[in-house]
Amino acid sequence: MKQPKGSSSISTSTNRTAGSGSKVTKKGLATQKAQKLKRVREMLASKKSEARQEPQTGSGGDLPRGVSKADTVNKPSGASKGSPQQTGLSTLQKKMQQKLKGARFRWINEAMYTETGAHTFKMVQADPSIFEEYHQGFAAQVQKWPVNPVDIFIGQLQGRSRAVVADLGCGEAALSAAVGAQHTVHSFDLVAHNERITACNIADVPLPDESVDVAIFSLALMGTDFIKFVREASRILRTGGELKIAEVVSRIAD
């Protein structure tokens, strides 16, 4: 369209871009750039503000730098007592954790049965947590048993006169804790779980020959060389002494 005489030939509109077919003044371009810069600054300020906010569990969004998902699960706000959020694990996660512990226990148990006593002793001395994991799993298994053989041995010792006892593969030394005031009990296992226990390979215990009246193996004949354990018990037993063994049937050959 032709411009009327005397009017400016340059449009002063700032609502259109140069590509729309309208011409734009230098002042209009500067205004547009300023507006764009303002919007970018506002967007950056908004992002920084979001990053400073506390992460909300279950929001599904990205977490701020330096904050892990575990932080949002283990440190929830307003979790009710006894709820999965308070412990940091859901019911499903707890079940999976128990399955993993069970698998770990079975792996350690298999390793102890398929290696020599000397090898297993070195393994758990290098990493005592292996022994701890094993006995945690073992304790969980014991709870399912109708009878714990250690309880039977405790009952037998409570009904006899004072004796010197060697508990070979004692675990947490429950036998010593129960009858230690009545008898002299030497407790041996791969790791000294408490002050009652001497850590050693039970194929080579630090006792003199013919020094004990009773030698006990309660589910402790683990290892490919378990016959050495029995021979060691024979060495430390006095003439007329008692050897007591509780073991799963599959471990005893005909």
How would you summarize what this structure contains?
This protein is an alpha/beta fold and 254 residues long. It is 44% helix and 12% strand.
> Distance between termini?
114 Å
- For the secondary structure, the number of strands is 5
Largest sheet: 5 strands, parallel
User: Regions with pLDDT < 50 over 5+ consecutive residues?
Assistant: 1-24, 54-61, 66-86
Treating each run of at least 4 consecutive H or I residues as one helix, how many helices?
9
Average per-residue pLDDT, rounded, comes to 76
> Based on CA inertia axes, which overall geometry fits?
elongated
What proportion of the residues form beta strands (DSSP E)? 5-15%
- SSE order, as H and E? HHHHHHHEHEEEHE
Helicity range:
40-55%
Note down, in words, how this protein is organized:
There is one protein chain. This protein is an alpha/beta fold and 254 residues long. Helices cover 44% and strands 12% of the residues. The chain has 9 helices and 5 strands; from the N terminus they run αααααααβαβββαβ. The chain has helices spanning 26-52, 69-74, 84-87, 91-114, 117-126, 129-142, 149-158, 174-179, 226-236; strands at 164-168, 184-189, 197-199, 212-218, 237-246. The protein has a 5-stranded parallel sheet with strand order 3-2-1-4-5, with helices on both faces. Helix 4 (91-114) crosses helix 6 (129-142).
